[in-house]
């Protein structure tokens, strides 16, 4: 999925200087952004108060939207580099096409994982014949420097491991949770899990104390470590936790993301992650010139042009001066 903001501003992200090394309860409110002409998303990362959670660097939550008489999601071909995209649905379908020749419809609780590596382009759209509702999340994972020039590829996993407990079904998207490990490829220690809670559930999910975590509420009424988290908002939890208390006032659904704090500082601009202004400027030039990112076949529409670069360059700096 693309960042379609025409006023794209570089964000300096990463580095342990931004990590809270102890348990906290920091509620992050979303910024509303239009994705194309018909889909509004709630952007939770990067956030004014928090830019990354482990290697997770971008989180959009959308829906549930009634698209029975609407085109639904329509995201034209656009480029990515230096990151992975994670598509996750609770309702609806998204048709993925990319410049590597992938063509795949992703449905609820199936994992669509695209590793951009050095360069890829893709489009996402609701199929012409689609379900009444569209509800899901789109997330990005920053690639570490050692892997950011890897070959691009798309993975589709229809079946994912689950952790079952009284009142809880946890589906593991990426990484491991309580002994269950996703088949999705990762490049840093991290976890992503979908937590479905039954009304009245009162339990604790095991965590890794060296990871930092956050929880996105998808639906329902739930208290996370005593804090009510409304749908479309995110609670940042910091590090140092061995478990996460959850109490559901109704049937509820959450997304848990976490990972080892991402030590490298990165520049994230539009749909690119680099380490310098030159990285970003070269990627923009290559996309606008039709180089490097390939071509998406089969999408009915023109590729998305890149926004103008900001007039002032931004340089990523290490956390130690």
Name of the CATH class: Mainly Beta
Q: How many E strands?
A: 26
CATH architecture level-2 label: Sandwich
**Computed structural class:** mainly beta
Mean pLDDT: 92
Family: Belongs to the pirin family.
Domain Pirin C-terminal: 193-291
GO molecular function, one term: metal ion binding
Domain Pirin N-terminal: 41-141
Task: List the topology elements.
Blueprint (H helix, E strand, L loop, with lengths): L10 E4 L8 E6 L2 E5 L3 E7 L10 E11 L7 E7 L2 E9 L2 E5 L4 E4 L4 E5 L4 E6 L7 E10 L10 E5 L4 E4 L2 E10 L2 E2 L8 E8 L4 E5 L5 E8 L2 E3 L2 E3 L4 E5 L4 E6 L3 E8 L5 E5 L2 E3 L2 H12 L33
Antiparallel strand pairs: 1-25, 2-22, 3-4, 4-5, 5-12, 6-11, 7-10, 7-12, 8-9, 8-11, 10-13, 14-15, 15-16, 15-17, 17-24, 18-23, 19-22, 19-24, 20-21, 20-23, 25-26
What does this protein look like?
About 5% of the residues lie in helices and about 50% in strands. It has about 325 residues and is mainly beta. The chain has one domain (about 10-260): Jelly Rolls (Sandwich), CATH 2.60.120.10. The strands form five sheets. Strands 2, 14, 15, 16, 17, 19, 22 and 24 form an eight-stranded antiparallel beta sheet that branches. A seven-stranded antiparallel beta sheet has the order 3-4-5-12-7-10-13, with no helix packed on it. The protein has a four-stranded antiparallel beta sheet with strand order 6-11-8-9, with no helix packed on it. The longest helix is centred in the last third of the chain and has 12 residues, at about 275-290. It is globular, with a radius of gyration of 19 Å. The chain starts with 10 loop residues before the first strand and ends in a 33-residue tail after the last helix. Residues about 315-320 have low confidence and may be disordered.
